[in-house]
Amino acid sequence: MKKLFTLMLAGGLFAAGCSSTDNEKEIFDKAMDIHERVITLDTHVDINVNNFTEETNYTQRLDTQVDLVKMEEGGLDVAWLIVYTGQDELTEEGYAAAYENAISKFDAIQRLTEEIAPDQIELATTSEDVKRIVAAGKKVAMIGVENAYPVGEDLSRIEEFYNRGARYMSLSHNGHSQFVDSNTGEGDGEWLHDGVSELGKEAIKEMNRLGIMIDLSHPSKKANLETMELSVAPVIASHSSARAVYDHSRNLSDEELLMLKENGGVVQTVAFRGYVDGDKHAAWQEASRTILEEEAEKLGFEMVGWGDIREMSDEERDEYMELYRTAQDNAEPRIESEVNVNTPPVSVADFADHIDYMVELIGIEHVGISSDFDGGGGVYNWMDASETFNVTHELVKRGYTEEEIEMLWSGNLLRVLDEVQAVAEDQQSNAEVVPAE
Fold first, then answer.
1. Residue 149 DSSP one-character state
2. How big is the CA angle at 146 (ends 411 and 79), to the nearest 5 degrees?
3. Which of 24, 229, 234, 277 could bridge to 265 as Cys pair (CB 3.0-4.6 Å)?
């Protein structure tokens, strides 16, 4: 049984989430019970290797949206920690730098689970691992690779990443990779492969053979449709929402969602404000920035862009950021009382609208949950791992049963992982054995 919330946090959530009516208290209590029993799993949490050292790490309450303290407070059991590499040039130099970056993140996750906090968090590579670790009272780390760019043109690196614990990988990020076109091609109408490259087709085969889930969250629509045709195993979208609810190239179209259902995969609805409702978020940002600028002016400094900040000396940057954080702290209560009332932020309810839509379209067996925390994700009332309960609370309010909530939080994703690994085992056991001469 997992430990759920501190008393202070639980009390705060109750005050924020319920009135004195018996029905609302019943819903809240039901949500608390369900949240304690189900395995909660978030498929996308970005990391910074600087937070995986003896001095600074996830055993502490960091400025990050996810750490072990917040996971404990919010009842989040499983975090897929992401080996992310931004897209750069398709050259040997680019591949080498990308590979170095990826390995540094694999190593960081290994340090956390094997050296820094093995008594608190353990790496899982199968659904059985997840269940065993949760039953033991620990948190679970899993590894996803966001962008296969570090593989370069050496497909043996896919197996290396698998051996290091990776269990899903996307074939591109923002920018066309050597494997597939990216969704970003919609912005300029320029494509590199018109879908999946020949190397990409080989990578798909290799991921199927090894048992790595293929992630559709960043490639183009055409690449995704082709990938699902090529893959003999179910696929996932590790952090995407519904394009019919909000039209963004990072969200999946109905055509993609229906094909994903046919494929047997799962889409992990993402709590990224710009993808949930970008127009609503832009309006809130503009109103909030006005308040922030007013508070900055009171402190006697002018807010500048990140380009200007990068040009500052270390001393100037530290001084600026200290003033900026003070302005943020001063602006927060004003934003809550002045902005949120008239220009509400993108919230857990807006996020759940995407879940509802996709459940209705493709069935609850094919929908899951992700945050994109520490990579830009978060919606009002689920802004870090400590607020994870609020998602379950919203689902209970909408009438989802405990069985359905368990499927959304972890059951569907772990089912796909099992099926992908079963395909790999079958392929490997049936592989032709060439006798030695």
1. G
2. 40
3. 234
How far is 390 from 31, CA to CA, in rounded Å?
9
Taking only the tens place, the pLDDT of each residue in 305-324 is 878 887 889 888 888 889 99
Are 155 and 180 contacting, i.e. CB atoms less than 8 angstroms apart?
A: no
The reported pLDDT for the residue numbered 307 is 82
300 domain-assigned: no
The distance from CA 130 to its chain's CA centroid, rounded to whole angstroms, is 17
**Tell me, what amino acid is at 47?**
I
> Looking at the DSSP assignment, which residues form a beta bridge with residue 242?
252
CA dist 322 → 131, 218, 282, 325, 327 (Å)? 43, 35, 25, 5, 9
Residues with Cβ < 8 Å from 108, sequence gap 6 or more?
Answer: 47, 49, 51, 52
Q: What is the pTM of this model?
A: 0.92
Q: What is the pLDDT of residue 2?
A: 57
Q: For residue 331, how many other CB atoms are within 10 A of its CB? A: 22
d(CA 82, CA 419): 22
Does residue 436 fall inside a structural domain?
A: no
Q: Is residue 34 part of a domain?
A: yes
- What is the number of alpha carbons within 13 Å of residue 139 lying toward its C-beta? 29
- Can you point out the beta strands (E) in 158-271? 166-170, 213-215, 236-237, 266-270
Our count of domains for the chain comes to 1
Q: Any alpha helices (H) in 211-266, and if so which ranges?
A: 221-230, 254-263
Cβ density class 164-193: b for 16+ within 10 Å, e for less? bbbbbbbbbbebbbbbbbbbbbeeeeeebb
**Residues 2 and 72: beta-carbon distance below 8 Å:** no
Residue 218 · residue 174 · CB < 8 Å:
yes
At residue 218, the 3 state secondary structure works out as: coil
pLDDT of residue 345: 97
> CATH number for the domain including 103?
3.20.20.140
Backbone phi and psi for residue 368, each to the nearest 5 degrees, phi listed first: -140, -160
Please report the sign of the dihedral spanned by the C-alpha atoms of residue 164, residue 167, residue 171, residue 174: negative
Q: 272 - beta bridge partners? A: 378
